[in-house]
């Protein structure tokens, strides 16, 4: 039965049987059979490669598991948070975790990433692991190896086609074997994983669940991927991995953002230690962030007031404002807008000029200036005369065009009040506070040098500038006066239009005068609005309600404080027969109808506010009023309201201890004080006869001149060596001056005294009933000072002294 194997006996030659049949082959073992089998070169190559692949697959599976666990440990913060910042320590821990289930060959690569570095994302050997890998950035030989593989495969396929039947059979056998091997490898891997998972299960059960899910997904994908080309599968996995990484990065970002936004209110110590302005700026932004959504961002133990206080202090520190002034600004703006305003107030506004339409046209002027190398543009559609200058190689106040009066250097916002006033030809117009004359000259130009423009200012020096400008600009319809605006209605009335560009705190032009930030106090603001109210009432009184062209008044300030704007207008609306009308300006922010506890007239919306941060113009306020009756409304008490204003003002008036003599705000106060001093001395002489001083007693050493000796005899008891007008028994004696300066001083004193008497005479209230307004001094003497207002005044002055 069957053939016998002849292993020992060598063949002696082919017999019939031998020729017909080959010797039987017995597969004692796979290795033996393969060794004995005669393989082609390509078959040998493929076999070798398969062996390597199996080995690699095994290693990769193990590595994959270890890396996955290590990654999860990092993601779930199983590290000590302090270690996160210790890169080296973290790396070591990461490696330790990673090496738990990793074969030595991978661990021996050293750095974890180093091991991953050379892996080919498109290599079919590694495909299964792609989803589990941590992010590896490095050079990966992708296409080369892939192409090589494809070429080898193609080559082998071609050869396979031409191989004998026998080889095909062998190949099939080999494939089957490969399948078995692969199964066994998977089986081993599963066992390994199971062991690993069991070990880890107690520590992090949840992680394992997730890991299982991931594996399931991967298995499913692998099944799906079988239908795809390797490159497609790799691409799909790469995309998936990128999406996952993106998601993780987004989560991390969100977490970081949450941590960053959560502002922790600083302790007193921390606040005291703040020395860096950069830190203050960051804190300002943080606090504003908290205030923007207070309920969500606040520290429950801190009130809104605490945050606002902190913000105010920081803003004062950072932008160099005083606390009071910053408080005023905080009442106007929301925190975010306030920051914008403060930033804009640190920057200079663009230089602007106004074309003098009496002498040239804007186009021609622009052309001439461009020819001089000045870079400019029209200021905007809202003005036909304005030009904004970006750069200039020559001083703008010294060009031939300037000297010829073709333009006026003027801030953009100062065009607005005149545009609102809309002067017409042949009108009678008053500019009550005009120096240095920018707006007046604009009015004159719009009047085309017709009609009559009264240009007034209380400051004589500043009026010099008006004079110079008017000559240069060719204005011929103006009359310049130097009168206290409050008294203007006593001099002249019946104007068609009045412009009151009132003196103010300058809170809108901080970029021009930064001293405003630190110097303005409540007294300054109060003083400003009191003056503004009085000037406004007078300005309205100067206006004719029966003017054929309207009887309009424009009130403007370069301040953004409601106290100087809406509040002043509201005050006038209650005391005069005027109404608010549209300004005719098609931009700007509506005026306020409420401010803190104050409620203003609803028509206040017709007024306009301009801000540096919204309009790139100086801060400005413009209101237009129309007078509909010349009658002055009576107050509840039946007295004319201006008297109430005066009383109110006397009540409210607080003066700073130190007054800067150069400050025009206080010019009239200083004059008044001086006059009061004169008056006081005079009163002292009248009512307190120098009983304690014997005639001829020398209290002070007189100058060694005859005249001065004479003067010494008349020197008042106060011991004031300054030349004073002396009065004897109520009769005023003319002093005998020794020097020219003394003569001047004496004359000045007399002039001031007269001025005071006039002022007192105009205000009958000060002297009580029956007293003469023309000779206050005598009447006071006769009527006695005990009841009169003068005594009160003298008392005040004494107190002041
Ligand atoms: C804002 S400036 C006017 C600027 C001017 N309108 C212009 O466009 O060039 C305010 C002016 O009011 C003047 N002034 C202050 N108190 C005054 C008063 N009681 N009567 C009249 N003018 C006064 C100041 O001398 C100052 O020149």
UniProtKB/TrEMBL annotation:
<dbReference type="Pfam" id="PF01189">
    <property type="entry name" value="Methyltr_RsmB-F"/>
</dbReference>
<dbReference type="InterPro" id="IPR029063">
    <property type="entry name" value="SAM-dependent_MTases_sf"/>
</dbReference>
<feature type="compositionally biased region" description="Basic residues">
    <location>
        <begin position="789"/>
        <end position="801"/>
    </location>
</feature>
<dbReference type="InterPro" id="IPR018314">
    <property type="entry name" value="RsmB/NOL1/NOP2-like_CS"/>
</dbReference>
<keyword id="KW-0808">Transferase</keyword>
<feature type="compositionally biased region" description="Basic and acidic residues">
    <location>
        <begin position="739"/>
        <end position="751"/>
    </location>
</feature>
<feature type="compositionally biased region" description="Acidic residues">
    <location>
        <begin position="640"/>
        <end position="651"/>
    </location>
</feature>
<dbReference type="InterPro" id="IPR023273">
    <property type="entry name" value="RCMT_NOP2"/>
</dbReference>
<feature type="compositionally biased region" description="Basic and acidic residues">
    <location>
        <begin position="50"/>
        <end position="62"/>
    </location>
</feature>
<dbReference type="InterPro" id="IPR001678">
    <property type="entry name" value="MeTrfase_RsmB-F_NOP2_dom"/>
</dbReference>
<feature type="region of interest" description="Disordered">
    <location>
        <begin position="677"/>
        <end position="801"/>
    </location>
</feature>
<dbReference type="InterPro" id="IPR049560">
    <property type="entry name" value="MeTrfase_RsmB-F_NOP2_cat"/>
</dbReference>
<feature type="binding site">
    <location>
        <begin position="433"/>
        <end position="439"/>
    </location>
    <ligand>
        <name>S-adenosyl-L-methionine</name>
    </ligand>
</feature>
<feature type="region of interest" description="Disordered">
    <location>
        <begin position="1"/>
        <end position="231"/>
    </location>
</feature>
<feature type="binding site">
    <location>
        <position position="457"/>
    </location>
    <ligand>
        <name>S-adenosyl-L-methionine</name>
    </ligand>
</feature>
<keyword id="KW-0949">S-adenosyl-L-methionine</keyword>
<feature type="compositionally biased region" description="Polar residues">
    <location>
        <begin position="718"/>
        <end position="731"/>
    </location>
</feature>
<keyword id="KW-0539">Nucleus</keyword>
<feature type="compositionally biased region" description="Basic and acidic residues">
    <location>
        <begin position="1"/>
        <end position="11"/>
    </location>
</feature>
<feature type="binding site">
    <location>
        <position position="484"/>
    </location>
    <ligand>
        <name>S-adenosyl-L-methionine</name>
    </ligand>
</feature>
<feature type="compositionally biased region" description="Basic residues">
    <location>
        <begin position="39"/>
        <end position="49"/>
    </location>
</feature>
<feature type="active site" description="Nucleophile">
    <location>
        <position position="558"/>
    </location>
</feature>
<dbReference type="InterPro" id="IPR011023">
    <property type="entry name" value="Nop2p"/>
</dbReference>
<feature type="compositionally biased region" description="Acidic residues">
    <location>
        <begin position="155"/>
        <end position="229"/>
    </location>
</feature>
<feature type="compositionally biased region" description="Basic and acidic residues">
    <location>
        <begin position="29"/>
        <end position="38"/>
    </location>
</feature>
<keyword id="KW-0694">RNA-binding</keyword>
<dbReference type="GO" id="GO:0009383">
    <property type="term" value="F:rRNA (cytosine-C5-)-methyltransferase activity"/>
</dbReference>
<dbReference type="InterPro" id="IPR023267">
    <property type="entry name" value="RCMT"/>
</dbReference>
<feature type="domain" description="SAM-dependent MTase RsmB/NOP-type">
    <location>
        <begin position="341"/>
        <end position="628"/>
    </location>
</feature>
<comment type="similarity">
    <text>Belongs to the class I-like SAM-binding methyltransferase superfamily. RsmB/NOP family.</text>
</comment>
<keyword id="KW-0489">Methyltransferase</keyword>
<feature type="binding site">
    <location>
        <position position="501"/>
    </location>
    <ligand>
        <name>S-adenosyl-L-methionine</name>
    </ligand>
</feature>
<keyword id="KW-0690">Ribosome biogenesis</keyword>
<feature type="region of interest" description="Disordered">
    <location>
        <begin position="635"/>
        <end position="654"/>
    </location>
</feature>
<protein>
    <recommendedName>
        <fullName>SAM-dependent MTase RsmB/NOP-type domain-containing protein</fullName>
    </recommendedName>
</protein>
<dbReference type="GO" id="GO:0000470">
    <property type="term" value="P:maturation of LSU-rRNA"/>
</dbReference>
<dbReference type="GO" id="GO:0003723">
    <property type="term" value="F:RNA binding"/>
</dbReference>
<dbReference type="GO" id="GO:0005730">
    <property type="term" value="C:nucleolus"/>
</dbReference>
<dbReference type="GO" id="GO:0070475">
    <property type="term" value="P:rRNA base methylation"/>
</dbReference>
């Amino acid at each position: 039965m069957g053939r016998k194997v002849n292993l020992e006996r060598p063949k002696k030659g082919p017999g019939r049987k031998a020729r017909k049949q080959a010797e039987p082959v017995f597969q004692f073992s796979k290795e033996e059979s393969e060794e004995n089998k005669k393989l082609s070169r390509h078959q040998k190559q493929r076999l070798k490669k398969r062996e390597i692949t199996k080995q690699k697959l095994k290693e990769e599976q193990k590595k994959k598991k270890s890396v996955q666990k290590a990654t999860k440990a990092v993601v779930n913060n199983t590290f000590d948070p302090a270690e996160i910042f210790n890169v080296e320590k973290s790396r070591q821990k990461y490696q330790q975790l990673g090496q738990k289930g990793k074969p030595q060959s991978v661990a021996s690569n050293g750095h974890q990433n180093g091991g991953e570095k050379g892996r080919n994302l498109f290599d079919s050997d590694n495909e299964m692991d792609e989803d589990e890998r941590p992010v590896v950035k490095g050079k990966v030989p992708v296409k080369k190896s892939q192409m090589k593989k494809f070429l080898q495969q193609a080559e082998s396929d071609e050869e396979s086609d031409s191989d004998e039947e026998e080889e095909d059979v062998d190949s099939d056998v080999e494939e089957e074997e490969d399948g078995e091997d692969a199964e066994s490898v998977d089986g081993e891997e599963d066992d390994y994983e199971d062991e690993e998972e069991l070990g880890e299960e107690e520590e992090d059960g949840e992680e394992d669940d997730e890991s299982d899910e991931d594996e399931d997904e991967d298995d499913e994908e692998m099944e799906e991927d079988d239908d795809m080309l390797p490159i497609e599968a790799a691409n799909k996995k790469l995309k998936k991995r990128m999406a996952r990484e993106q998601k993780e990065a987004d989560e991390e970002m969100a977490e970081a953002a949450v941590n960053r936004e959560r502002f922790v209110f600083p302790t007193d110590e921390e606040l005291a230690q703040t020395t860096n302005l950069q830190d203050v700026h960051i804190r300002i932004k943080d606090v504003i962030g908290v205030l923007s959504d207070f309920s969500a961002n606040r520290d429950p133990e801190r009130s809104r007031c605490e945050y606002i206080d902190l913000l105010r202090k920081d803003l004062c520190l950072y932008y160099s404002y005083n606390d009071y002034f910053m408080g005023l600004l905080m009442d106007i703006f929301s925190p975010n807008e306030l920051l914008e305003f403060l930033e804009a107030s640190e920057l200079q506004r663009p230089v602007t000029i106004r074309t003098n339409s009496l002498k040239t046209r804007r186009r021609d002027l622009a052309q001439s200036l461009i020819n001089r190398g000045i870079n400019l543009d029209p200021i905007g559609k809202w003005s036909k005369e304005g030009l904004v200058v970006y750069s200039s190689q020559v001083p703008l106040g010294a060009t031939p065009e300037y000297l010829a009066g073709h333009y006026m250097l003027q801030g953009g916002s100062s065009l607005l009040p005149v545009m609102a006033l809309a002067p017409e030809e042949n009108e009678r117009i008053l500019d009550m506070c005009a120096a240095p004359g920018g707006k007046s000259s604009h009015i004159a130009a719009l009047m085309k040098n017709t009609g009559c423009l009264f240009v007034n200012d209380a400051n004589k020096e500043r009026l010099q500038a008006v004079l110079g400008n008017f000559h240069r600009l060719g204005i011929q319809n103006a009359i310049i006066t130097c009168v206290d605006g409050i008294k203007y209605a006593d001099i002249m009335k019946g104007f068609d239009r009045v412009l009151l560009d009132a003196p103010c705190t300058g809170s809108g032009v901080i970029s021009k005068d930064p001293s405003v930030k630190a110097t303005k106090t409540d007294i300054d603001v109060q003083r400003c609005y009191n003056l503004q109210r009085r000037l406004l009432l007078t300005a309205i009184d100067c206006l004719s309600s029966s003017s054929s062209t309207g009887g309009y008044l424009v009130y403007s300030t370069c301040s953004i404080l409601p106290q100087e704007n809406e509040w002043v207008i509201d005050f006038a609306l209650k005391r005069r027969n005027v109404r608010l009308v549209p300004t005719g300006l098609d931009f700007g922010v509506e005026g306020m109808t409420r401010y803190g506890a104050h409620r203003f007239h609803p028509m206040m919306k017709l007024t306009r506010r301009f801000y540096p941060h919204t309009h790139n113009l100086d801060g400005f306020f413009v209101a237009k009023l129309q007078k509909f009756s010349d009658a002055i409304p009576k107050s509840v008490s039946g007295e004319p309201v201006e008297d109430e204003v005066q009383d109110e003002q006397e009540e409210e008036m607080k003066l700073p201890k130190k007054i800067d003599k150069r400050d025009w705000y206080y010019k009239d106060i200083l004059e008044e004080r001086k006059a009061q001093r004169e008056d006081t001395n005079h009163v002292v002489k009248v009512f307190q006869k120098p009983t304690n001083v014997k005639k001829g007693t020398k209290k002070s050493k007189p100058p060694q001149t005859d005249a001065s000796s004479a003067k010494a005899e008349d020197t008042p008891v106060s011991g004031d060596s300054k030349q004073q007008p002396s009065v004897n028994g109520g009769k005023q004696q003319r002093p005998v001056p020794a020097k020219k300066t003394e003569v001047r001083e004496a004359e000045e004193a007399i002039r001031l005294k007269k001025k005071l008497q006039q002022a007192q005479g105009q205000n009958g209230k000060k002297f009580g009933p029956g007293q003469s307004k023309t000779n206050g001094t005598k009447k006071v003497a006769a009527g006695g000072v005990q009841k009169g207002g003068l005594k009160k005044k003298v008392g005040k002055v004494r107190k002041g002294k």
